[in-house]
Amino acid sequence: MYRRLICALCFFLSLSLILAASTGELALNNYHQPNEVASLLKSWNTKYPQLTKLVNIGQSSGKSDILMLRIAAQGKSVEPDSRPAVFVSANIEGYHLAGTEAALLLIEKLLTGYGSDKKVTSLLDKRTVYVAPLLNPDVAQYYFIQTRYERHRNSIPMDDDLDELVDEDGPDDLNKDGLITQMRIKDPEGTMIPDPSDPRLMKRADAKKGEKGVYKVYTEGLDNDGDGEYNEDPAGGVEVNRNFPHDFEYYVKPAGLWPVSQKESIALLQFLVSHQNIALVLNFSTENTFLNLQQTGQARAAGATVRVPERYASFLGLDPDVDYTLKEVVDAINASGVTGGQQVDESFVAMMLGLGPAMNIDNQDMPLIQEIQKDYKDAQKKAKLDYPESRAKGVGKGSFAAYCYFQYGVQVFSADLWAVPEPKKEPAAKDKDALTLDKLKTMSSEDFLALEDEKIEAFLKEQGAPPNFKAEMVKNMVKSGRITPEKMVEMIEKMPKMPAAKEGEHPDSYILKWSDEVLKGKGFVDWAPYKHPTLGDVEIGGFVPYLRLIPPPSELKKTIDFHTDYYISLMDRLPQVELKETKVEALGDGVYQVTVYFTNTGWFPTSTAQGRRARTVWPIRVELKLTAGQSLFSGYRIVNIPFIDGSGGTGKAEWTIRGKRGSKVTATAKAPYLDSVTTAVVLQ
Amino acid sequence: MKKNKIFFAFLVIAFCLVFLLPKISHAAEVKLSFDHFYDHAELTAALKALQKANPQFMKLISLGKSYEGRDIWGVILNNPQTGPEEHKSGFYIDGNIHGNEIQGTEVALYAIWYLLENYGKTELATRLLDERVFYIIPTMNPDSRDYFVNKKEIYRSGVIPVDEDQDGVADEDGPEDLDGDGFITTMRKKDPNGRFRAHPDDPRVLIPVRPGQKGEYTLLGTEGIDNDGDGQINEDRLGGYDMNRNYGFNWQPNYVQYGAGEYPFCFPETKATRDFLLAHPNIMGGQNFHNAGGMILRGPGAKNLGEYPMGDRRVYDHIGKKGEKIIPGYRYLIVYKDLYTVFGGSIDFLYNILGAYTFSNELDISPTFSFPIEGERGEEEEEDEEVQRLRYMAERLAEMTYHDLVLLGEHFADWKPYKHPLYGDIEIGGTKIYGSRVPPLFQLADTCHRNAAFCLFHADQLPILEFDGVKVEKLESDLFQLDISVRNTRVTPSMSALSAQRKLHRADRLKIEGKNVKLAAAGRLFDEYRGITGKIETRDNSIWVESGVPGFARVTYRFLVRGKGSVKLIYDSLKGGYMTTTVALK
Question: Would you identify the CATH topology of the domain A577-682?
Answer without folding.
Answer: Immunoglobulin-like (2.60.40)
